[in-house]
Please model this.
Amino acid sequence: MKTSIINFSVFLLIGMINFNGLGQIDQSYDLPELLISNEGVNIQNEVQWNNIRRLEILELYKNFVYGRIPDNNISVSFKLKKLNVNALKGRAIQKEVIVTFTNGIETLDMNMLIFLPKKSVKPVPVFLGMNFYGNQTIHLDSSITITPNYVRNSTKFLISNNKATEKTRGVRAERWPVEHILERGYGLATIYYGDLDPDFDDGFQNGIHKLFYKDGVKPKADEMGSISAWAYGLIKAMDYLETDKDIDKKKVVVMGHSRLGKTALWAGALDQRFAIAISNDSGCGGAALFRRNHGESIKSINKHFPHWFCRNFHQFDDKEEQLPIDQHMLISLIAPRPVYVASAVEDKWADPKGEYLSLFYAGEVYSLFGQESFKSKELPEIDRSRMTGNMGYHIRSGTHNLTLFDWERYMDFADQFFKNH
Ligand code: GTR
Model:
Protein backbone atom coordinates (compact mmCIF):
# COMPACT_ATOMS: atom_id res chain seq x y z
CA MET A 1 0.00 0.00 0.00
CA LYS A 2 1.52 3.28 -1.05
CA THR A 3 0.90 6.09 1.38
CA SER A 4 2.37 9.00 -0.43
CA ILE A 5 1.28 11.75 1.88
CA ILE A 6 2.43 14.92 0.29
CA ASN A 7 5.00 15.86 -2.25
CA PHE A 8 7.87 17.14 -0.14
CA SER A 9 9.43 19.29 -2.89
CA VAL A 10 6.19 21.19 -3.43
CA PHE A 11 6.22 22.19 0.17
CA LEU A 12 9.85 23.20 0.12
CA LEU A 13 9.08 25.41 -2.86
CA ILE A 14 6.29 27.20 -1.13
CA GLY A 15 8.25 27.31 2.08
CA MET A 16 5.84 25.40 4.32
CA ILE A 17 7.46 23.00 6.68
CA ASN A 18 4.85 22.76 9.34
CA PHE A 19 2.12 21.23 7.35
CA ASN A 20 1.17 18.27 9.47
CA GLY A 21 0.33 20.48 12.41
CA LEU A 22 3.09 19.08 14.59
CA GLY A 23 6.09 20.69 13.00
CA GLN A 24 7.06 17.53 11.12
CA ILE A 25 7.55 16.72 7.50
CA ASP A 26 5.87 13.54 6.37
CA GLN A 27 7.73 11.36 3.91
CA SER A 28 6.13 8.61 1.91
CA TYR A 29 6.48 4.97 2.90
CA ASP A 30 5.02 1.61 1.99
CA LEU A 31 2.97 -0.21 4.57
CA PRO A 32 2.73 -4.01 4.50
CA GLU A 33 -0.59 -5.16 3.03
CA LEU A 34 -3.25 -5.85 5.58
CA LEU A 35 -5.65 -7.70 3.36
CA ILE A 36 -3.43 -9.92 1.23
CA SER A 37 -2.45 -13.21 2.84
CA ASN A 38 1.01 -14.80 2.75
CA GLU A 39 -0.28 -17.01 -0.08
CA GLY A 40 -1.57 -13.99 -2.00
CA VAL A 41 -5.25 -14.50 -1.14
CA ASN A 42 -7.30 -11.31 -1.20
CA ILE A 43 -9.06 -11.14 2.14
CA GLN A 44 -12.61 -10.03 1.49
CA ASN A 45 -14.71 -10.93 4.46
CA GLU A 46 -14.60 -11.47 8.18
CA VAL A 47 -14.42 -15.26 7.90
CA GLN A 48 -11.28 -15.09 5.76
CA TRP A 49 -9.91 -12.44 8.07
CA ASN A 50 -10.47 -14.54 11.20
CA ASN A 51 -9.35 -17.84 9.69
CA ILE A 52 -6.42 -16.73 7.60
CA ARG A 53 -5.02 -13.24 7.84
CA ARG A 54 -5.56 -12.50 11.51
CA LEU A 55 -3.69 -15.66 12.47
CA GLU A 56 -0.82 -14.87 10.11
CA ILE A 57 -0.41 -11.38 11.51
CA LEU A 58 -0.55 -12.67 15.09
CA GLU A 59 2.26 -15.08 14.21
CA LEU A 60 4.36 -12.30 12.71
CA TYR A 61 4.02 -10.30 15.92
CA LYS A 62 4.98 -13.31 18.01
CA ASN A 63 7.95 -14.17 15.83
CA PHE A 64 9.41 -10.76 15.18
CA VAL A 65 8.13 -8.18 17.63
CA TYR A 66 6.95 -8.97 21.14
CA GLY A 67 7.83 -12.67 21.27
CA ARG A 68 5.61 -15.64 21.92
CA ILE A 69 4.57 -16.77 25.36
CA PRO A 70 6.14 -20.25 25.49
CA ASP A 71 4.03 -23.35 26.00
CA ASN A 72 4.29 -24.06 29.64
CA ASN A 73 3.14 -26.01 32.63
CA ILE A 74 2.55 -23.01 34.76
CA SER A 75 -0.53 -23.26 36.89
CA VAL A 76 -2.30 -20.21 38.19
CA SER A 77 -4.45 -19.83 41.28
CA PHE A 78 -6.31 -16.92 42.85
CA LYS A 79 -6.73 -15.95 46.47
CA LEU A 80 -8.79 -13.11 47.86
CA LYS A 81 -6.34 -11.62 50.33
CA LYS A 82 -8.27 -8.53 51.42
CA LEU A 83 -11.88 -7.50 51.16
CA ASN A 84 -13.35 -4.26 52.45
CA VAL A 85 -16.98 -3.73 51.56
CA ASN A 86 -16.92 -0.24 52.97
CA ALA A 87 -13.80 1.30 51.51
CA LEU A 88 -13.06 4.89 50.46
CA LYS A 89 -15.53 6.41 52.90
CA GLY A 90 -18.26 3.98 51.93
CA ARG A 91 -17.92 4.54 48.20
CA ALA A 92 -16.16 1.34 47.23
CA ILE A 93 -15.75 -2.35 47.57
CA GLN A 94 -12.01 -2.90 47.72
CA LYS A 95 -10.25 -6.19 47.08
CA GLU A 96 -6.75 -7.47 46.78
CA VAL A 97 -6.42 -10.70 44.87
CA ILE A 98 -3.19 -12.63 44.81
CA VAL A 99 -2.62 -14.41 41.54
CA THR A 100 -0.03 -17.12 42.14
CA PHE A 101 1.93 -18.67 39.30
CA THR A 102 3.83 -21.89 39.85
CA ASN A 103 5.83 -24.34 37.76
CA GLY A 104 5.83 -26.83 40.63
CA ILE A 105 9.21 -25.66 41.90
CA GLU A 106 9.13 -21.90 41.95
CA THR A 107 6.25 -19.50 42.48
CA LEU A 108 5.53 -15.86 41.74
CA ASP A 109 2.75 -13.68 43.14
CA MET A 110 1.00 -10.87 41.34
CA ASN A 111 -1.18 -8.65 43.50
CA MET A 112 -4.26 -7.18 41.86
CA LEU A 113 -5.94 -4.23 43.55
CA ILE A 114 -9.62 -3.81 42.72
CA PHE A 115 -12.03 -0.98 43.48
CA LEU A 116 -15.70 -1.40 42.57
CA PRO A 117 -18.49 1.16 42.96
CA LYS A 118 -20.39 0.38 46.11
CA LYS A 119 -23.69 1.74 44.86
CA SER A 120 -23.87 -0.68 41.94
CA VAL A 121 -26.22 -3.62 42.36
CA LYS A 122 -25.23 -5.61 39.30
CA PRO A 123 -21.88 -6.78 37.92
CA VAL A 124 -19.88 -3.73 36.79
CA PRO A 125 -17.61 -2.96 33.84
CA VAL A 126 -13.97 -2.64 34.80
CA PHE A 127 -10.87 -0.86 33.54
CA LEU A 128 -7.81 -3.08 33.90
CA GLY A 129 -4.42 -1.41 33.70
CA MET A 130 -0.92 -1.86 35.05
CA ASN A 131 0.92 0.75 37.09
CA PHE A 132 4.60 1.73 37.22
CA TYR A 133 5.56 2.01 40.90
CA GLY A 134 3.27 -0.28 42.88
CA ASN A 135 -0.44 -0.44 43.71
CA GLN A 136 0.14 1.73 46.79
CA THR A 137 1.06 4.67 44.53
CA ILE A 138 -2.34 4.93 42.88
CA HIS A 139 -4.25 6.05 45.98
CA LEU A 140 -3.45 7.37 49.45
CA ASP A 141 -5.54 4.65 51.10
CA SER A 142 -3.35 3.23 53.86
CA SER A 143 -4.60 -0.35 53.56
CA ILE A 144 -3.17 -0.98 50.08
CA THR A 145 -0.31 -3.44 50.19
CA ILE A 146 3.04 -1.91 49.30
CA THR A 147 4.77 -3.93 46.63
CA PRO A 148 7.66 -5.94 48.05
CA ASN A 149 9.19 -6.27 44.58
CA TYR A 150 11.88 -4.37 42.71
CA VAL A 151 10.82 -0.85 41.71
CA ARG A 152 12.72 1.64 39.62
CA ASN A 153 14.48 4.32 41.66
CA SER A 154 12.93 7.76 41.45
CA THR A 155 13.88 10.91 43.32
CA LYS A 156 10.49 12.38 42.42
CA PHE A 157 8.67 9.50 44.06
CA LEU A 158 11.14 9.06 46.92
CA ILE A 159 12.24 5.60 45.86
CA SER A 160 15.82 4.52 46.48
CA ASN A 161 17.50 1.10 46.65
CA ASN A 162 14.72 -0.16 44.37
CA LYS A 163 12.34 -0.49 47.35
CA ALA A 164 8.94 1.12 47.74
CA THR A 165 8.17 2.45 51.25
CA GLU A 166 5.25 4.13 53.03
CA LYS A 167 6.39 7.40 51.48
CA THR A 168 5.20 6.22 48.07
CA ARG A 169 1.54 6.00 49.01
CA GLY A 170 -0.54 7.98 46.57
CA VAL A 171 2.41 9.49 44.68
CA ARG A 172 0.79 8.57 41.39
CA ALA A 173 -2.83 9.22 42.46
CA GLU A 174 -3.07 11.99 39.89
CA ARG A 175 -3.02 9.38 37.13
CA TRP A 176 -5.68 7.19 38.75
CA PRO A 177 -8.84 9.20 39.55
CA VAL A 178 -10.35 6.29 41.46
CA GLU A 179 -13.32 8.11 43.03
CA HIS A 180 -14.20 9.63 39.71
CA ILE A 181 -14.07 6.30 37.92
CA LEU A 182 -16.34 4.78 40.57
CA GLU A 183 -18.71 7.73 40.35
CA ARG A 184 -19.19 7.01 36.65
CA GLY A 185 -20.13 3.41 37.39
CA TYR A 186 -16.86 1.72 36.52
CA GLY A 187 -14.54 -0.45 38.54
CA LEU A 188 -10.76 -0.31 38.40
CA ALA A 189 -8.35 -3.23 38.61
CA THR A 190 -4.65 -2.53 38.68
CA ILE A 191 -1.44 -4.50 38.98
CA TYR A 192 2.12 -3.37 39.48
CA TYR A 193 3.92 -4.41 36.29
CA GLY A 194 7.10 -5.28 38.20
CA ASP A 195 5.21 -8.10 39.93
CA LEU A 196 5.39 -9.87 36.57
CA ASP A 197 8.73 -8.74 35.29
CA PRO A 198 11.07 -6.12 36.70
CA ASP A 199 11.73 -3.48 34.09
CA PHE A 200 15.46 -3.87 33.48
CA ASP A 201 17.57 -5.99 31.20
CA ASP A 202 18.87 -9.14 32.82
CA GLY A 203 18.79 -11.47 29.84
CA PHE A 204 15.18 -12.58 30.47
CA GLN A 205 16.03 -14.36 33.71
CA ASN A 206 13.98 -12.68 36.41
CA GLY A 207 10.27 -12.19 37.12
CA ILE A 208 7.93 -14.60 35.41
CA HIS A 209 10.71 -15.62 33.01
CA LYS A 210 12.32 -17.73 35.69
CA LEU A 211 9.22 -19.92 35.88
CA PHE A 212 9.30 -20.57 32.16
CA TYR A 213 13.03 -21.29 31.87
CA LYS A 214 14.69 -23.65 34.26
CA ASP A 215 18.43 -24.13 34.83
CA GLY A 216 19.51 -20.95 33.09
CA VAL A 217 18.02 -21.95 29.73
CA LYS A 218 17.72 -18.81 27.61
CA PRO A 219 14.55 -17.86 25.74
CA LYS A 220 14.65 -18.46 22.03
CA ALA A 221 14.94 -15.46 19.72
CA ASP A 222 11.18 -15.51 19.11
CA GLU A 223 10.20 -15.86 22.76
CA MET A 224 8.75 -13.22 25.00
CA GLY A 225 10.37 -10.04 26.14
CA SER A 226 8.96 -7.96 28.97
CA ILE A 227 6.01 -6.53 27.04
CA SER A 228 4.74 -10.05 26.37
CA ALA A 229 5.41 -10.98 29.99
CA TRP A 230 3.32 -8.03 31.21
CA ALA A 231 0.61 -8.87 28.67
CA TYR A 232 0.62 -12.44 30.01
CA GLY A 233 -0.08 -10.94 33.46
CA LEU A 234 -3.06 -9.01 32.09
CA ILE A 235 -4.41 -12.15 30.45
CA LYS A 236 -4.14 -14.09 33.70
CA ALA A 237 -5.78 -11.16 35.50
CA MET A 238 -8.64 -11.55 33.02
CA ASP A 239 -8.90 -15.23 34.02
CA TYR A 240 -9.56 -14.02 37.54
CA LEU A 241 -11.97 -11.22 36.56
CA GLU A 242 -14.09 -13.80 34.75
CA THR A 243 -14.64 -15.59 38.04
CA ASP A 244 -15.58 -12.53 40.07
CA LYS A 245 -19.35 -12.24 40.34
CA ASP A 246 -19.16 -8.50 41.05
CA ILE A 247 -17.58 -7.90 37.64
CA ASP A 248 -19.17 -8.01 34.20
CA LYS A 249 -16.68 -10.19 32.34
CA LYS A 250 -18.02 -9.02 28.99
CA LYS A 251 -17.10 -5.44 29.85
CA VAL A 252 -13.42 -5.49 30.74
CA VAL A 253 -11.40 -2.66 29.20
CA VAL A 254 -7.65 -3.19 28.99
CA MET A 255 -5.74 0.07 29.09
CA GLY A 256 -2.29 1.44 29.73
CA HIS A 257 0.06 4.38 29.41
CA SER A 258 3.29 4.49 27.46
CA ARG A 259 5.18 1.16 27.66
CA LEU A 260 2.10 -0.15 29.41
CA GLY A 261 0.01 1.22 26.54
CA LYS A 262 2.08 -0.93 24.19
CA THR A 263 1.35 -3.79 26.58
CA ALA A 264 -2.40 -3.07 26.65
CA LEU A 265 -2.64 -3.15 22.85
CA TRP A 266 -0.69 -6.39 22.68
CA ALA A 267 -2.84 -7.97 25.41
CA GLY A 268 -5.97 -6.78 23.59
CA ALA A 269 -4.65 -8.34 20.39
CA LEU A 270 -3.80 -11.66 22.03
CA ASP A 271 -6.93 -12.07 24.08
CA GLN A 272 -10.32 -11.40 22.54
CA ARG A 273 -12.03 -11.49 25.91
CA PHE A 274 -10.98 -7.85 26.37
CA ALA A 275 -14.00 -5.88 25.22
CA ILE A 276 -12.09 -2.65 24.52
CA ALA A 277 -8.38 -1.82 24.26
CA ILE A 278 -7.01 1.64 25.06
CA SER A 279 -3.57 3.01 24.38
CA ASN A 280 -2.49 6.19 26.12
CA ASP A 281 0.64 7.76 24.57
CA SER A 282 2.02 4.34 23.65
CA GLY A 283 4.27 5.51 20.80
CA CYS A 284 6.95 3.32 19.24
CA GLY A 285 6.08 -0.36 19.55
CA GLY A 286 2.56 0.73 20.55
CA ALA A 287 0.15 2.58 18.31
CA ALA A 288 2.70 4.56 16.24
CA LEU A 289 3.59 3.44 12.72
CA PHE A 290 7.25 2.37 12.69
CA ARG A 291 7.76 3.38 9.06
CA ARG A 292 7.03 7.05 9.60
CA ASN A 293 10.32 7.30 11.45
CA HIS A 294 9.25 10.19 13.62
CA GLY A 295 10.25 10.26 17.28
CA GLU A 296 11.52 7.03 18.76
CA SER A 297 13.04 4.51 16.33
CA ILE A 298 13.44 0.75 16.56
CA LYS A 299 17.18 1.15 17.04
CA SER A 300 16.72 3.60 19.86
CA ILE A 301 14.04 1.60 21.70
CA ASN A 302 16.08 -1.60 21.44
CA LYS A 303 19.19 0.17 22.66
CA HIS A 304 17.56 1.69 25.72
CA PHE A 305 15.19 -1.18 26.48
CA PRO A 306 16.80 -4.36 25.09
CA HIS A 307 14.43 -6.50 27.16
CA TRP A 308 11.05 -5.17 26.00
CA PHE A 309 10.78 -7.04 22.70
CA CYS A 310 11.94 -10.48 21.61
CA ARG A 311 15.53 -10.86 20.37
CA ASN A 312 14.38 -11.22 16.76
CA PHE A 313 13.12 -7.65 16.84
CA HIS A 314 16.69 -6.36 17.12
CA GLN A 315 17.40 -7.37 13.53
CA PHE A 316 15.18 -4.47 12.45
CA ASP A 317 17.33 -1.73 13.98
CA ASP A 318 17.51 0.95 11.28
CA LYS A 319 15.50 -1.34 9.00
CA GLU A 320 11.92 -0.37 9.68
CA GLU A 321 11.07 -0.89 6.01
CA GLN A 322 11.96 -4.59 6.33
CA LEU A 323 9.58 -5.34 9.18
CA PRO A 324 6.85 -7.71 8.01
CA ILE A 325 4.28 -5.75 10.01
CA ASP A 326 3.47 -2.19 10.93
CA GLN A 327 1.29 -1.01 13.76
CA HIS A 328 -1.94 -0.59 11.82
CA MET A 329 -1.75 -4.39 11.90
CA LEU A 330 -1.58 -4.45 15.69
CA ILE A 331 -4.76 -2.36 15.81
CA SER A 332 -6.36 -4.64 13.23
CA LEU A 333 -5.86 -7.62 15.56
CA ILE A 334 -8.23 -5.90 17.97
CA ALA A 335 -10.94 -5.52 15.29
CA PRO A 336 -13.87 -5.51 15.36
CA ARG A 337 -13.74 -4.68 19.04
CA PRO A 338 -13.63 -1.03 20.05
CA VAL A 339 -10.18 0.54 20.28
CA TYR A 340 -9.14 3.99 21.48
CA VAL A 341 -5.77 5.64 20.97
CA ALA A 342 -4.71 8.87 22.64
CA SER A 343 -1.75 11.16 22.07
CA ALA A 344 -0.45 14.40 23.56
CA VAL A 345 0.70 17.42 21.60
CA GLU A 346 4.05 17.72 23.34
CA ASP A 347 4.70 13.98 23.23
CA LYS A 348 6.46 14.08 19.88
CA TRP A 349 8.68 11.17 20.88
CA ALA A 350 5.55 8.99 20.60
CA ASP A 351 4.65 10.45 17.17
CA PRO A 352 0.99 11.48 17.58
CA LYS A 353 0.32 11.48 13.85
CA GLY A 354 1.71 7.97 13.53
CA GLU A 355 -0.47 6.86 16.45
CA TYR A 356 -3.51 8.23 14.67
CA LEU A 357 -2.64 6.79 11.28
CA SER A 358 -2.44 3.26 12.64
CA LEU A 359 -6.11 3.54 13.47
CA PHE A 360 -6.84 5.10 10.11
CA TYR A 361 -5.18 2.29 8.15
CA ALA A 362 -6.68 -0.44 10.36
CA GLY A 363 -10.05 0.87 9.16
CA GLU A 364 -9.89 -1.58 6.23
CA VAL A 365 -10.32 -4.46 8.65
CA TYR A 366 -13.11 -2.78 10.60
CA SER A 367 -14.88 -2.36 7.25
CA LEU A 368 -14.80 -6.12 6.72
CA PHE A 369 -16.97 -6.36 9.80
CA GLY A 370 -19.31 -3.67 8.51
CA GLN A 371 -17.93 -1.12 10.96
CA GLU A 372 -17.40 2.52 10.18
CA SER A 373 -13.90 3.88 10.62
CA PHE A 374 -11.99 7.16 10.38
CA LYS A 375 -12.41 8.91 7.06
CA SER A 376 -9.70 11.54 7.35
CA LYS A 377 -5.94 11.25 7.63
CA GLU A 378 -5.87 14.55 9.47
CA LEU A 379 -5.73 14.71 13.22
CA PRO A 380 -8.83 16.00 14.97
CA GLU A 381 -8.73 19.33 16.77
CA ILE A 382 -6.62 19.38 19.89
CA ASP A 383 -8.57 18.37 23.02
CA ARG A 384 -11.53 17.06 21.03
CA SER A 385 -12.10 13.35 20.73
CA ARG A 386 -13.03 11.79 17.43
CA MET A 387 -15.23 8.72 17.74
CA THR A 388 -16.38 6.86 14.65
CA GLY A 389 -17.81 3.38 14.76
CA ASN A 390 -15.60 1.32 17.06
CA MET A 391 -12.66 3.72 16.92
CA GLY A 392 -11.75 6.61 19.15
CA TYR A 393 -8.85 9.04 19.20
CA HIS A 394 -7.82 12.32 20.78
CA ILE A 395 -4.76 14.47 20.95
CA ARG A 396 -4.64 16.30 24.24
CA SER A 397 -2.70 19.47 24.90
CA GLY A 398 0.25 18.94 27.21
CA THR A 399 2.88 16.32 27.78
CA HIS A 400 3.40 12.56 27.95
CA ASN A 401 1.05 11.71 30.80
CA LEU A 402 -2.23 10.09 31.79
CA THR A 403 -4.68 12.76 32.92
CA LEU A 404 -8.27 13.17 34.04
CA PHE A 405 -9.06 14.50 30.57
CA ASP A 406 -7.84 11.20 29.07
CA TRP A 407 -9.86 9.16 31.55
CA GLU A 408 -13.02 11.15 30.84
CA ARG A 409 -12.70 10.42 27.13
CA TYR A 410 -12.10 6.71 27.78
CA MET A 411 -15.21 6.51 29.92
CA ASP A 412 -17.26 8.47 27.36
CA PHE A 413 -16.08 5.97 24.75
CA ALA A 414 -16.83 2.91 26.90
CA ASP A 415 -20.27 4.33 27.80
CA GLN A 416 -21.25 4.01 24.15
CA PHE A 417 -20.69 0.26 24.17
CA PHE A 418 -21.71 -0.57 27.71
CA LYS A 419 -25.12 1.02 27.69
CA ASN A 420 -27.08 1.14 30.89
CA HIS A 421 -24.32 -0.19 33.04
C1 GTR B 1 10.35 6.13 27.09
C2 GTR B 1 10.33 5.21 25.91
C3 GTR B 1 8.96 5.14 25.33
C4 GTR B 1 7.88 4.98 26.40
C5 GTR B 1 8.21 5.63 27.72
C6 GTR B 1 7.48 5.12 28.94
O1 GTR B 1 11.61 6.32 27.62
O2 GTR B 1 11.25 5.71 24.97
O3 GTR B 1 8.91 4.12 24.38
O4 GTR B 1 7.54 3.67 26.58
O5 GTR B 1 9.54 5.52 28.06
O6 GTR B 1 7.05 3.97 29.00
O7 GTR B 1 7.37 5.89 29.88
About this structure: Residues 258-259, 283-284, 296, 301 surround beta-D-galactopyranuronic acid (CB under 6 Å). Residues 99 and 237 are 8 Å apart (CA to CA). The chain is about 25% helix and 20% strand. The longest strand covers residues 75-86.
